[in-house]
Structures are given as C-alpha cells and as structure tokens.
Amino acid sequence: MARQVSLATQLAQSPSAWNGHIAPLILRAMTDVYITLAWIFQDREKRTDEYVKYGLGQRKLWLEHFKRSLVERGEKEPEKNLFVKALTRQLNAERFEHITEVNVGAWSERSTRKMAEEAGCLDLYRLAYTPFSTAVHSMWTHIAGYNLRRCRNPLHQFHRVPEDSDLEPDIDYVYRAAKYVAKTFALFDRETGVSVETPSSLDQFVESLAHPTGEAQTDSPDPLDDL
Ligand SMILES: [Zn+2]
C-alpha cells in the first residue's frame, strides 16, 4: 500500500510525466501492486512467505551472476568486491542468504492473468493492466501511436518515420493513479474489516478538481478575508 501511495505521489508531482509515454509505465506498476495484494489476501500466510522468499531468491541469483561477471573480467576474489560485500550483508541481515531457494519462475507460479482471475479482478487485468503493458513492453500499437508519424510525401507511399513527440500533460493519468490508491485501500478495508471515516485522497482530489485554487467557495468563506 505504501508502494501504491509512492507511485501515485511521484506521478502527481511530475506533470511532465502525465502523458502516454511515461504515465502508463507507472499505472501498469500500480495495477500490478493491486493484483499482487488481492492475490496474497486469498491465502495470506503462505503467499506472503512465497512473496518474500521469491524476492530474496531473485536478489541472490542476481548476486551470483554479478560475481561471475567480475571473475570473467579478471577479478580473482569477487567476495572482496565492496558492492558484493554490501549486498551479501544485506541478504544475511534477512537471515536467508544460505537457505534462500532461488526460484526462477514467477513467484506465485502463476501468470498475472491467472492471479487476477483467482483474486476476482480480471476486469482490471483486461481493461487496465493489458493496455498499459503495451507501453511497458514497447509493443507495436504503442510505438505506432506515440513514436511514429506518417510521411506526407505521396511519392514515399506514406511510410512512417520515427518521432519523439511532445505531448500535452493530461491530468486524467493522475486521476487514474488516485483511483488505484483508493481501490487498494478499499481492498485492504474489505479484507481486514478496518473502517475509516477519513475522506479518501481520491475524493479530495476530485473535490479539488471541482474547486480549483482561487475559486471562491460560497459555503466556506476564507477566515483570512476579514484580516
Ligand atoms: Zn518519406
């Protein structure tokens, strides 16, 4: 949930990223967070454990690859490399260094689609995760839409030419990020029975869009007006 808030906050603070080049990268990560959390909630203890162990296993695997690349570059004692030492210390601190299994598949041993299906959020997968993934994986539809334009020379048979287009910021991307935060908090409340009276950040965001800064609000006069 903290990760979700970080992603939304960073996006909100970066108007230059409110476009189809960058925002989908962040929004896709946010749909991933939601699906993962929803799926963990279905079998909390077992899946939390798998989630942690998979992360540590991947880090350990990366460390082994890194050590091998140091040896290939002529380093005789890779264990003495400062970076290797620091990472090994970090893994040891989690007390998993020597017992961590390296799992090279997906940590849940399921595709994200299957996880979404099992966690009852297949719509989010189909309608948000999938289209945002076209930007993450730089697929044809994304490239054709954002990084190619038609050449206007009719003698060239209207081939496409690469372009790094400047896009106007679109606050709808921030709205979607706020929506995913609210959705994640609602999931948490539902699964844990927590009930909170505080208005959600999504409600506050929508309210602030309806009453932008500087617009007079008749029902709540500014107390500083009298000073
Ligand atoms: Zn041309």
Tags for this model:
227 residues; mainly alpha; 2 domains; two-stranded antiparallel ribbon; 9 helices; 2 strands; 58% helix; globular; disordered C terminus; binds zinc ion
Characterise this structure.
Helix content is 58%, strand content 3%. With 227 residues, it is mainly alpha-helical. The chain folds into 2 domains: 1-41 and 119-210, no CATH class; 43-111. The longest helix is centred in the first third of the chain and has 29 residues, at 44-72. Mean pLDDT is 88; it is low at 221-227. The site of zinc ion (ZN) has 4 residues, from loops. Zinc ion (ZN) is lined by residues 151, 153, 156, 159.
Number of domains: 2
Mean pLDDT equals: 88
Strand order of the largest sheet: 1-2
Helix fraction, binned, reads 55-70%
Order of helix and strand elements from N to C terminus: HHHHHHHEEHH
Instruction: Tell me, briefly, the overall form.
Output: globular
Largest sheet: 2 strands, antiparallel
What binds here, in terms of ligands, is: zinc ion
Low-confidence stretches: 221-227
Distance between the termini: 42 Å
Rg, rounded, reads 24 Å
Number of helical runs?
Answer: 9
Oligomer: single chain
